[in-house]
Structure formats: C-alpha cells, structure tokens
Amino acid sequence: ATLTALACGRADPGDPAVRERCAREAAYLRRLVQQHAEEDAAPGTAAAVEQAVRSAECLGLRVTAQYRDLVEIPAPAAAALGSAVTEALNNVLRHAGTGHAYVTVTGTGGGVEVTVVDRGTGFDPRAVEKGLGLRSSIHGRMREAGGAAAVDSAPGEGTRVELRWPA
C-alpha cells in the first residue's frame, strides 16, 4: 500500500514514517522472495553475481569481472550477494559519472568476498544521508543473510563496495 501511495504521489518519500514503512515492507518482500528462492533451484554464487553484471551491462555499464577460487554458499546468501551487487552497479550507473565498474568475486575458505569498484566522482559517505539504496539494498540484505557490507568513497576518488559472507 505504501509503495502504491508513493507511485501515485499520495505519500511524501521524504517523510520518515513513510520511509520506515517502505523499509518494513521491503524486508517482508525480501523474506517472501528468499523463501521461494530456497524452494526453487537458486543460482550459485557465480551465477548470482553474473546475473547482476549482465543486467548492468544491458543498461550500458561496462563491467570487468573476475572470479577466483569460488565456493558455493547457501542460496539465500548467494541471492543477497547478487542483489547487493545489482544495487552497487546501479549506483555506479546513477551517480559515479563513469561508464565502467570492476567486480571481483573471491572464495575465502567457506565464504565469499565481492568487491565492486568504480573510478568515478566518489562522495563523502558522512555527508550523504544513507538512502534506501545503501541502507536496505546493500547493508540490509547482506546483514539479513548473515553477511556484511562496507562502502568506502571520497570525492574525486571513486567508490569501493565490499561484500562478505559470512560476516
């Protein structure tokens, strides 16, 4: 209902109560999707990230991807990684002012580390309110799946998003 109200212009996206309802509804929808993803044949680690890469490339972003020593992780964790990579690449498209990103996926024993790097405009993370893109789509999804995310950026220095599972 909240998303419909936003789409129709009947709710203010800057209203803290609306933002909180959106976050709760998004968490509920992610749980539903994860339940169905577990029931279906969920993609593996590489496939989840590669799907995010292909989607970004279809939107015009050039992505250099490297995969090293991959290990398979539980389907909900792979789905969270894929979703977080999708959001990081979408942020490159929307904000970085560059047409190229670098994605590295590395197996770490029983886990996975993914980095998404751009050499774009960068930003001061302390000066930017954490929007839904960072808070929910990246940090929230990784946390809900038992992982972690970190964003490092500075004006003129580009941005580096690091994703880890397990945390």
Fold and architecture overview:
This protein has helices at residues 2-7, 16-39, 45-58, 75-96, 132-144, and strands at 62-68, 100-108, 111-118, 148-153, 159-165. It has 167 residues and is of the alpha+beta class. It folds into two domains: 1-40; 43-165, Heat Shock Protein 90. Strands 1-2-3-5-4 form a five-stranded mixed sheet. Strand 2 and strand 3 form a beta hairpin. The chain is globular and about 50 Å long. The chain starts with a helix and ends with a strand. The mean pLDDT is 85.
Descriptive terms for the model:
alpha+beta, Heat Shock Protein 90, five-stranded mixed sheet, 5 strands, 22% strand, HATPase_C_sf
The CATH superfamily label of the largest domain reads: Histidine kinase-like ATPase, C-terminal domain
Helix content: 40-55%
Strand content: 15-25%
Output the number of helix runs.
Answer: 5
Count of β-strands: 5
* CATH topology annotation of the largest domain: Heat Shock Protein 90
| Structural class determined from secondary elements | alpha+beta
Q: Based on CA inertia axes, which overall geometry fits?
A: globular
- Give the distance, in angstroms, between the N- and C-terminal Cα atoms: 33 Å
Summary of the model, kept short:
By secondary structure, this protein is an alpha+beta fold. Helix content is 47%, strand content 22%. The protein has helices at 2-7, 16-39, 45-58, 75-96, 132-144; strands at residues 62-68, 100-108, 111-118, 148-153, 159-165.
